[in-house]
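Posting for a labmate who doesn't have an account.
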Amino acid sequence: MSKYQIILSNIIITTTIVAAFFYLSNGNSFIADKENVNEIRIDTIVIQSKESIQNSIYESRETIITKTVKNVSPAVVGISVKEVRQYQYNSPFNNHPFWRKFFGSRIYNKEISGLGSGAIISSDGYILTNDHVAGTADEITVTLSNGKHYIAERIGTDLTSDICLIKIDETNLPYIPLGNSDEILIGEWVVALGNPFGLFDVSDKPTVTVGVISASGMNLSPVDHRYYIDMLQTDASINQGNSGGPLVNSMGELIGMNTLIWTAQGSSGNVGVGFAIPSNKLNKVIGELKENGFFERNYWTGLRIHSIDEGIANYYKLPDTRGVIITDVIPNSPASAAKLEPGDIIRKIEDFDIDNYETLKGVLQNYKTGEKISITILRGNVSYIKQMVLEKRESR
């Protein structure tokens, strides 16, 4: 027998003796303890397995969307407004000269209430919403997700772009950073948050809907002197009260402000077509509202234009009716300085395609006094790019 075999044999014998000693000294208690240990280990394994399964299920439910909602929800606010409007009551006696002095027309005030949504965009209390939500309000109340209420100050508003900036007196607030709307992907997931039908006040939490970016660069018809150019389209459900709320991407960046919905005839509810103002436009207007309280558009062009119809398109041998034709250029105007001429067809301004007169008028609202814009024209069969400065309109 080798040395190693002898050592191994001694270890086995020693182990056997020790085990027998414990068995003889404790009787059946060794078996009982062993059974208890097994029971404890089995219970522990069962508990650990249950926790593991629960964690696994939770992790599978937690997606980039749910994480985004959790992160941005504290920065979404509910907005309620009050506005006193004057109305005129015309008495049926108003046409009678005698009774008119007793029962003629009367002016009376009426308080109008409204609801909307907003997004905190900086830790010191700046909040973004729509002009049609808070632009003319006499009192603006903001409700945070922690249940606190604040009276907000209107910093500035712009009816034309439907953008309003308000502020509450608070610091260290959660906020949503503005993203780059030029980097949006058609079909990417987005989340719309807000206060539809005033439901924010029920639980102090925003309502969440999820969808995708359906389209970008959408030019809509003006509504009440508000121009909606280069809008984002989404199928995330947007309803009454969602106006002013944020549209965020999966990274938690604000890429748009929910503003309009497309409604079916005879319905005021959502049909899966909503529109948001893109963040890059928001950013530009916000800067002006912070600095001046308004967006300066007191400029002129010196252009007289007309939409293109089939007759004009045929005469100029155009491939389609898109664009506008310049009918006159006022001397010593920004247009004349840019070397624009009657008969030129305007096809684009900067990166915006010009479809007709309304589109051109809406696109120009994106620029402020003093800005230089690039105008793509068709003169004969040749395309040119002209630079025009939007000079301040002088009083005459």
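Reply:
Got it, the structure tokens are right above this. Residues 3-8, 16-40 have pLDDT under 50 and may be disordered.
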